[in-house]
Structure formats: C-alpha cells, structure tokens
C-alpha cells in the first residue's frame, strides 16, 4: 500500500519573466522517506523548494502539504533549514531555539553536546558547523512532519556532515518526511530516492540503482593518463580521471579508441558499470 505523501508537486513550472527556473517537475515524499534533489548550482533546486514551502507560487502546476495547498496552517507541519540557516545572528543558540519553540507553542527542547555548552553564545560568534547544528535544532524543535533542508551541510567538514546526516536519518526513522537538496554524490547515496535536476528540468528520478541501471563507462589504462585525458577532452568526450585510469561515461570503446588513436598508447580498455557521479555528469551534459 502506498503511503500518503507529506508533500506532493504535480507538473510544477515557475518562470521569472522569460527565465524558466523550474520546468514541469513532479515529486512526492512519504513519511519516513529521505528524498534528495540532486543538481548543480543553478539547476532550480532552491526555487522548487521555495515553491513547495509556499514562499513562491508556481506559474503552472500544483503543490500540496499534508494534502492541502501551502498555507499558514500547513507551515506548522514544516521544519525548514535554508541555505542561509535562518538564524538570528544577534541571539544566542538557546534564544533562537526558544523563539522558534514559542512560535510553534511547544516547550523548548533540551540542548545537548556542543549546543548545550555554547547555548549562551551569540550565533554570530559560532563556527559554521555549530551554526548548522543550531539551525537543525530550530527546525526540529516542534517535531515537524516534513523536514525541508536546502544544502544543509554546505561548508561543513566530513565529520560535521556525517553528524548532520545522522540527525536527518533519525528524523526519518521517527516518521518525518525529509526533502534535502545537495550536489554531493556521497550525500545523494544516503537518500532513499533522488530527483536529478538540470536547467530546471528533471533528467532522472528513482533510486540510485534505477538511475544508474544500464549506464556504462569505458575505463582505460594508459602509460600517460594525463595526455589520454586531454586527448579525449579534445575529441569532445566527457573524460574523468580515476587514479592512473581514465573513465569515459556514456561512450563506446570504439569512440574512445578513435579519440586516442595516434596520441597515446592504451594498455587496456573495458566497459564497466557507471557510478552515480558519472551517470549524473552524463545526464547533465546531455541537457
């Protein structure tokens, strides 16, 4: 049985004058599910998020939150961490959390760890990693049914990113629907499903296995991978370094061999399954 969606978009398009920022996008996020919006900067992810939150009205299509159009009432079900974090810089961590809890008429949650030890520190004086954790605490203070996160780990180191993703999965395990934007492939792999965007359009959707299924990469070993990489790029092929190997996604062995003919010797060549990053780059290159 299909779970009811906490957020659903149907054929959403949004234009800024003559610029189509979001072009015919549909998605749904069910309770306990982590759905990732994957795309480069400018792909339309943030604009789509703002439409889903009711901060922008779609030019075409429709959006529902908890089965209703976005409104003041549906916002009570939302926890949101924008790219800008949404914190008051002149307030402390505890004051930010208390303010958000008061707005939702719930008790302020107890702070733990570094947030507790730095609870009385103004946000402006905090390192970025602590700021992002504080933003999560604010977004989660009322136990939202839908958690929307726009590039929530941007600028945070690997350890901090891992801790924030632990919080994301904890929220999903408790039944929240989670929608998160990212351009990090390792973060995309932590999502249950992905919607891949480029130039405002959907270029792929589904699980990682579904997105990557059937896509191949030509992998070559050469005595000079740097020259091989340059030759393949000069031939108009999408070539990626991989240690002492060069990988060419979405291509044939014949095309790679032609691109390298007379330029550099090839020690071995084989066709292998593509990675998610290679699949993403191939799809974006085709738009």
Provide a descriptive summary of the structure in words.
The chain has two domains: 205 residues, Rossmann fold; 73 residues, Alpha-Beta Plaits, CATH 3.30.70. It is 33% helix and 29% strand. The chain has eleven helices and 13 strands. It has a six-stranded mixed sheet with strand order 5-6-7-3-8-9, with helices on both faces. Helix 5 packs parallel to helix 6. The mean pLDDT is 90.
Just give the CATH class of the largest domain.
Answer: Alpha Beta
Q: Could you name the CATH topology of the largest domain?
A: Rossmann fold
Spatial strand sequence of the major β-sheet: 5-6-7-3-8-9
Which stretches are poorly predicted, pLDDT < 50 over at least 5 residues?
Answer: none
- What does the average pLDDT come to? 90
Work out the strand percent.
Answer: 25-35%
CATH architectural arrangement of the largest domain: 3-Layer(aba) Sandwich
| Computed structural class | alpha/beta
Q: Whole-Å distance between the termini?
A: 35 Å
CATH superfamily of the largest domain: P-loop containing nucleotide triphosphate hydrolases
Major sheet description? 6 strands, mixed
Secondary structure tally: strands = 13
- The best one-word shape is globular
Order of helical and strand elements: EEEHEHEHHHEHEHEEHEHEEHEH
Radius of gyration: 22 Å
């Amino acid at each position: 049985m299909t779970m009811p969606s906490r957020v659903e978009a149907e054929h959403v398009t949004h234009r800024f004058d003559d610029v189509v920022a979001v072009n015919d996008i549909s998605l749904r996020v069910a309770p306990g599910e982590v759905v990732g919006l994957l795309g480069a900067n400018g792909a339309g992810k943030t604009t789509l998020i703002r439409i889903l939150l009711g901060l922008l009205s779609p030019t075409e299509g429709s959006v529902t939150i908890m089965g209703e159009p976005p409104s003041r009432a549906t916002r009570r079900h939302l926890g949101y961490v924008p790219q800008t974090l949404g914190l008051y810089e002149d307030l402390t961590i505890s004051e930010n959390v208390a303010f958000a809890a008061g707005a939702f008429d719930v008790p302020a949650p107890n702070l733990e760890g570094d947030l507790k030890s730095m609870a009385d520190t103004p946000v402006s004086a905090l390192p970025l990693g602590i700021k992002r954790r504080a933003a999560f605490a604010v977004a989660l203070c009322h136990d939202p049914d839908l958690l929307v996160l726009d590039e929530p780990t941007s600028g945070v180191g690997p350890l901090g990113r891992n801790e924030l993703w632990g919080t994301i999965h904890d929220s999903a395990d408790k039944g929240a629907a989670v929608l998160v934007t990212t351009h990090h492939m390792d973060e995309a792999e932590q999502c249950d499903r992905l919607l891949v965007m480029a130039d405002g359009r959907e270029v792929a959707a589904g699980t990682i296995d579904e997105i990557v299924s059937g896509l191949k990469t030509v992998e070559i070993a050469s005595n000079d991978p740097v020259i091989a990489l340059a030759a393949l790029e000069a031939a108009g092929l999408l070539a990626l370094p991989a240690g002492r190997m060069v990988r060419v996604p979405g291509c044939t062995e014949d095309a790679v061999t032609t691109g390298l003919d007379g330029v550099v010797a090839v020690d071995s060549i084989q066709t292998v399954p593509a990675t998610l990053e290679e699949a993403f780059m191939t799809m974006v290159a085709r738009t």
